């Protein structure tokens, strides 16, 4: 079918060629519009939330993306078997893949995305830039020509003027990019960039641009229907990024004016029209300190951060995509599109900020998020699910809305304080810190924000003695409840407590270098005197649910999320700190034994500090064989019995996931 011929298509069944939060989010709108939904999944995702929420689901292969979510044949086959008449690609994976888009068309399946030609032009920085210059869209001054000889590139860089950005034409999102300050470095930098580009993208083609200093990343959401109507839906400021991964996004951009918005919006619409765009697209610009803007690239998909645009415009962009795919006109004209209030989105990643933001995996023991007016959570996991190492580390997005930017910011702080993710380490505490930085508060953050404010690691705030007092009181109450529920044989400890009223309950938490000895004395039911090293607190447990506890510490009320792994471990999350606390006086010896006899696995995600034995060595029961550091605590891994080391599977200094094999022992009978 040709675009713009006015033909309407009835679309009844949507296959979503994606996973995680975006698959869940897309299916919700499809369902709301009366469509049947089909999920595809890899073997690692057999019980994932997007599969649970779909009407039908089809396994498309093993965990590795190349064998599942990138498998064009298997996905088209799933579409045919389930009668899907359209495919939504989400973001990432096949969303900007021309081969996939045309294969859908060849199979008579509507690809919910732009026409092939638009994907093709925008996928090549040099072609995209030439098309934009032709269309009158402001671009960063530079060179995007065919002559790729070293002599020409160096000469062009000099005439553009240093500093310059050297970018791979086939790259994107910051990959294959380098900044050159000195003329003397040009030749080697360009040579290196060419070989890197060849290796990474199969093409050594480069473009050269004047480097914009401390820009903001401001992108315009555009939408076009098949009749050629094209509009812009305001902007998103995505300046806060870590290594080209967005962390916080918002709309409107804090420094936007109505004149600038109209200029950028018009330029973005021209960009879309120049490539015959259809559907949802995003035109990325750099905005410099003088208020000049420059085209960077166009993303030919629905983006991760689209919810902030939905919040300030009131439109459902997935609904718009479906209407456009059916052949309908855009639901609104430019003159009708207004922005109201302010929206902020943060990305919750399963990663370890204290270890360079390395991905963190494992079972999710608790995922609790707040509900309320002006708070939206887009997530792809629930309590009991698992974060696996195969896919992107983003597990959820929190989006808040307020009348003003400050309203939205305060609402986000409060939403994050009410969020707990236990199991995989995550960036919640980091996000809270970002929200309170002066540059963010003042709307002054540029792309230099993370470098200006943080190094390569983020160290969480220090644990307070009142947090540890709450931990001890919570563990005490849970243990008492457990004894009560097992009342057939009344525990000695409980008997002591009942008959004498007061018995000191002691615990020891090792956190990094520090050891905290905690002693708890019950004063009355739910009321304790808790001493942490030398500091004494008065703790009252005022309310306790399955996953939250409200306490009054020295007269001040606090709310915590918790997850209990009796008898030793308690996950606890305060307003700004997520903790995993293990009471070393209660770690049972059997918990240190490995699951499969001689298979020694990591009890939790962490960094292996040492491996103390080598293959072939004999070990004795109780001997330390490795040390794991997790959440600033050192855990000794001990041999569960006498035997011999068959194989060492992990190495010291490396991150390791919960359940990963450290070594194999052969235990004596
Ligand atoms: C630039 C630039 C400065 N000058 N180009 C990074 C991602 C890719 N989309 C383009 N990027 C940049 N291109 C010129 N001519 C600075 C960046 C940049 C950046 C852009 C957006 C968001 C975050 C960024 C972080 C570092 C550098």
Description:
The relative contact order is 0.08. With 669 residues, this protein is α+β, with helices and mostly antiparallel strands. Residues 488-501 have low confidence and may be disordered. Helix 4 (98-106) runs antiparallel to helix 5 and helix 12 packs antiparallel against helix 13 (428-435). The protein is globular and about 80 Å long. Helices cover 27% and strands 33% of the residues. It starts with 12 loop residues before the first strand and ends with a strand. The protein has 18 helices and 39 strands. An eight-stranded antiparallel beta sheet has the order 14-13-10-11-12-15-22-20, sandwiched between helices. An eight-stranded antiparallel beta sheet has the order 24-25-26-27-28-29-30-31, covered by helices on one side. The structure holds ligand MV4. Ligand MV4 binds next to strand 9 and strand 14.
Could you report the average pLDDT, rounded to the nearest whole number? 92
Distinct small molecules bound, one entry per kind: ligand MV4
**Count, helices:** 18
Strand order of the largest sheet: 14-13-10-11-12-15-22-20
The span between the termini is: 72 Å
**Beta-strand fraction estimate:** 25-35%
- The percent of residues in helical segments reads 25-40%
Structural class: alpha+beta
Unreliable residue stretches: 488-501
């Amino acid at each position: 079918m040709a675009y713009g011929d006015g033909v309407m298509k009835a679309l009844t069944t949507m296959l979503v060629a994606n996973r995680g939060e975006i698959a869940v989010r897309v299916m919700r709108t499809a369902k709301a519009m009366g469509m049947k939904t089909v999920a595809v999944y890899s073997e690692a995702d057999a019980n994932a939330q997007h599969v649970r929420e779909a009407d039908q689901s089809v396994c498309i292969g093993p965990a590795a993306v190349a064998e599942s979510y990138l498998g064009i044949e298997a996905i088209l086959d799933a579409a045919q078997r389930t009668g899907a008449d359209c495919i939504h690609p989400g973001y990432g994976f096949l969303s900007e893949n021309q081969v996939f888009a045309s294969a859908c068309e060849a199979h008579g399946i509507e690809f919910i995305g732009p026409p092939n030609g638009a994907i093709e032009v925008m996928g090549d920085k040099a072609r995209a830039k030439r098309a934009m210059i032709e269309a009158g869209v402001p671009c960063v001054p530079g060179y995007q020509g065919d002559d790729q000889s070293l002599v020409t590139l160096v000469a062009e860089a000099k005439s553009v003027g240093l500093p310059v950005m050297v970018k791979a034409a086939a790259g994107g999102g910051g990959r294959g990019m380098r900044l050159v300050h000195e003329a003397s470095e040009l030749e080697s930098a360009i040579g290196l960039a060419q070989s890197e580009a060849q290796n990474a993208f199969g093409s050594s083609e480069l473009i050269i641009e004047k480097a914009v200093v401390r820009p903001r990343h401001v992108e315009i959401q555009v939408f076009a229907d098949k009749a050629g109507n094209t509009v812009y839906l305001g902007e998103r400021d995505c300046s806060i990024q870590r290594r080209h991964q967005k962390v916080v996004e918002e709309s409107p951009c804090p420094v936007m004016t109505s004149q600038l918005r109209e200029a950028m919006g018009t330029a973005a619409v021209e960009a879309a029209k120049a490539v015959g765009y259809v559907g949802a697209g995003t035109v990325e610009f750099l905005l410099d300190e003088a208020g000049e803007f420059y085209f960077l690239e166009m993303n030919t998909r629905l983006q991760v951060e689209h919810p902030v645009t939905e919040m300030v415009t009131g439109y459902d962009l997935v609904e718009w995509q479906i209407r456009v795919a059916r052949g309908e006109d855009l639901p609104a004209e430019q003159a009708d599109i207004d922005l109201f209030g302010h929206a902020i989105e943060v990305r919750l990643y399963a990663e370890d900020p204290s270890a360079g933001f390395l991905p963190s995996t494992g079972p999710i023991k608790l995922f609790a998020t707040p509900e309320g007016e002006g708070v939206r959570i887009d997530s792809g996991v629930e309590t009991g699910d698992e974060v696996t190492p195969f896919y992107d580390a983003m597990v959820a997005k929190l989006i808040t809305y307020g009348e003003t930017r400050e309203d939205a910011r305060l609402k986000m702080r409060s939403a994050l304080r009410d969020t707990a993710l236990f199991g995989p380490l995550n960036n919640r505490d980091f996000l809270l810190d970002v929200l309170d930085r002066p540059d963010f508060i003042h709307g002054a953050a540029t792309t230099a924000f993370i470098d200006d404010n943080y190094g390569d690691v983020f160290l969480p705030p220090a644990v307070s003695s009142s947090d540890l007092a709450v931990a001890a009181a919570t563990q005490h109450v849970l243990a008492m409840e457990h004894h009560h529920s097992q009342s057939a044989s009344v525990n000695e400890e409980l008997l002591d407590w009942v008959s004498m009223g007061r018995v000191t309950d002691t615990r020891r938490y090792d956190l990094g270098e520090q050891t905290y000895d905690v002693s708890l004395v019950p004063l009355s039911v739910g009321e304790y005197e808790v001493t942490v090293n030398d500091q004494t607190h008065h703790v009252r447990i005022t309310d306790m649910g399955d996953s939250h506890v409200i306490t009054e510490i020295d007269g001040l009320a606090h709310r915590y999320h918790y997850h209990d792994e009796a008898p030793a471990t308690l996950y606890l999350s305060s307003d700004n700190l997520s903790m995993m606390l293990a009471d070393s006086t209660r770690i049972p010896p059997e918990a240190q034994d490995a699951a499969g006899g001689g298979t020694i696995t990591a009890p939790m995600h962490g960094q292996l500090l040492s491996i103390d034995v080598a293959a072939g060595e004999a070990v004795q029961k109780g001997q330390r064989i490795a040390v794991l550091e997790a959440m600033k605590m050192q855990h000794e891994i001990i041999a569960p019995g006498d035997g011999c080391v068959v194989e060492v599977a992990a190495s010291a200094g490396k991150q390791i996931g919960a359940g990963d094999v450290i070594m194999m022992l052969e235990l004596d009978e």
